[in-house]
Amino acid sequence: MNNNSDPAVAAARLGDQLSSIAGRMSTLSSDFAELSASLGKPVTVTAPQPQPRPNPQPQLQYATATPFGRPPVQPYNPQTVYPQTAAPQQHVGYPQHPGARQFVPPQPPAPKRSFSERISDAAERGLVGRILAAVGVGITLIGVILLLVLAAQAGLLRPEVRVAGGALFAAALVGIGVRIGRREEKRSGAVALVATGVAAALFDVLAATTIYHWLPEIAAIVLGAAIGAAGLAVAHRWNSQTLGLMVSIPLLTFAPVAAGGVDEVLVSFMLAYAASTLWLQMGRDWTALFVVNTVAATLPLFAYLNSSEPLAWFAAVAALINLAMALGSTMLLAPSSSRSTLLGVTAVFAGLPVAMLGSLDSISRHTGAAIVAIAAVAFIAAALISRGQTKISYGCRVLWLSAGALFLALAMGAALDASMMPLGLLVAAMVVLIAARWSDDLELPVRIIGTVFVSIGLLALLAVGGVNQLLIPGSLNTSQQATLLIGALVGLATVTLATRDWGETASSKQQLWLVGGLIDLWLITELCVSVGNLVTGGSDGGFRGGHLAATLVWFGSAAAALLWARTLAGSARSLTLATGLAIITAAVAKLFLFDLAALSGIYRVIAFIVAGLVLLSLGVAYAQRLTSDEPAAQ
Predict the structure, then answer these.
(1) How confident is the model at residue 580, as a pLDDT?
(2) CA dist 236 → 240, 242, 269, 417, 530 (Å)
(3) What digits encode the pLDDT tens for the residues 569-588?
(4) Residue 537 carries which DSSP code?
(5) Which pLDDT value is given to residue 80?
(6) What angle do CA 219, 221, 227 make, to 5 degrees?
(7) Residue by residue, what is the 3-state secondary structure of 267-295?
(8) Which among 292, 415, 449, 502 could bridge 405 via Cys, Cβ 3.0 to 4.6 Å?
């Protein structure tokens, strides 16, 4: 073993080791920089300093043997052992790596602001001023009410002083507000002054009419409308919905107090005020003001209808005017409103007092039904007339249509007796289903409404004796049997019409026709039993004869459907065949589960013989068709 102690070899080996150490240090620095970057801390990465180079030795001209058979060490060359390196550079910040995502350090949370600072910012935005102004309006108007009403009850001051003082105070507030509002930057405060003055003037007119009786009622209504229109003209000029709300909300709240209760004068006064403010909402998106004004006109109507002695004619006229005004306003304001559906909902709310008229004792049943029917026609007409107006949403029109249907049902409920209600509903359903074909985009909701009427009418038909007639002989009188007879006829036509209309667009036609066919079978049974009871005077023979006729009709209908299916092809054949088989199944079930026990004597014999012959004929017919369809034997 030879120990090679050549200095050149040792220097080369030492240089290799130092280069390896420098590379590892560089890798370690890069890893540390990445770790610091992921923690969000900027780091300073310094390239490792190169080790001092040993003095170059003379190049050896001979090869040096290596122990253990390793390859010989190449002669020392400074250019290969120590390649040229760039000068050390300082990298400050986050090291960038190709393909790596840019790290964005998280932003520090904003410092919490104190309550006083938030109040100061709100004051700068004008929020504090608006809140103080609104509270000031309410408190000032309460003071006006105290002056006009409570002072009169306590005997303080003379009536002339109270009324004149209220009028002067209102005029002064309006004048000061209009003067201040000339400058736009001060208009928020001026709005509160003008609103307070207008509301105070309206309260003064109400008190002068209802408490002191100085003004005729008609004059007070006209004067109130003029004050509302003239005062809120400032809101239109300043384009301030807030001014209108600051008048309408206090008026809605305190008007009953200023008027000394809810009576005809207050109801008329509020209706006139709501009508006088309609013009200033034209072309403006002031949905909130319309809603508040409509509520201000409708709530006194509710209170008046619930009072002890409401005038029937006045309640009817006021309720219809309120509904017409709400519907007309909605159609006029919808083009400029961004929430036309809310306008439509508000119009439906305005129609609720009309629905209460049918329950008033002072109004006859037929008069109340006629008034409710007028409201139903108004809703339906509004839904159809607004068909071409794109600004009135489809949902709003569907809502009006549904409201019209509901009012129509209420009108029939008020006009008809319980025994006649099924006929009214079924006739209405037929009319609605026929009208659905000319309803354009409202065809689907109209058809749904007609189907609902059909369903309720059939349930009502069961409730007025449809179940008892089928199960208990002689349980109904002649009038009830006649009602069921007519109801079964109308129901048959209506159910068939509804099934056909829905079948034109439904994907599951077989299930739909199956349900419709079963309902028709029940109605046919009602019809047959009604005829039997009417012919025989409600005897047991008529009951059994009616059920026998119904069973034969069931089997005959099934046979007709199955024979007709033989002439069809494709989906029509499958639909007709499935319907016929379903009717056959139901007929056989009725024969064994009901007729076998309910019928007796000749009725039972005829039922089973005819049913058996029909089934045999159908079996032969279908077996013959199957044989004729088989391919000829080769």
Answers:
(1) 83
(2) 7, 11, 22, 52, 68
(3) 777 787 788 888 888 888 88
(4) T
(5) 47
(6) 100
(7) HHHHHHHHHHCCHHHCCCCCHHHHHHHHH
(8) 449
Number of CB atoms found within 10 A of residue 17's CB: 11
CA–CA gap between residue 353 and residue 361 (Å, rounded): 15
Angle 40-43-48 (CA atoms, 0-180°, nearest 5)? 145
Q: What values do phi and psi take at 46, rounded to 5?
A: -115, 130
Sign of CA dihedral 542, 543, 549, 552: negative
HEC profile of 128-152? HHHHHHHHHHHHHHHHHHHHHHHHH
HSE (side-chain half, CA atoms, 13 Å) at 161? 7
Distance, in Å, from the CA atom of 35 to the CA atom of 43, rounded to the nearest integer, reads 10
Return the amino acid letter for 251. L
Question: How many other C-beta atoms can be found within 10 angstroms of the C-beta atom of residue 459?
Answer: 12
Q: Which helix (H) or strand (E) holds 93?
A: strand 90-93
The pLDDT assigned to 489 comes to 93
Low-confidence ranges of the chain (pLDDT < 70): 1-12, 14-15, 18, 22, 26, 28-29, 31-130, 133, 147-157, 159, 389-390, 506-507, 624-634
DSSP sequence for 581-627: HHHHHHHHHHIIIIIHHH--THHHHHHHHHHHHHHHHHHHHHHHHHH
Task: Give pTM, 2 decimals.
Answer: 0.69
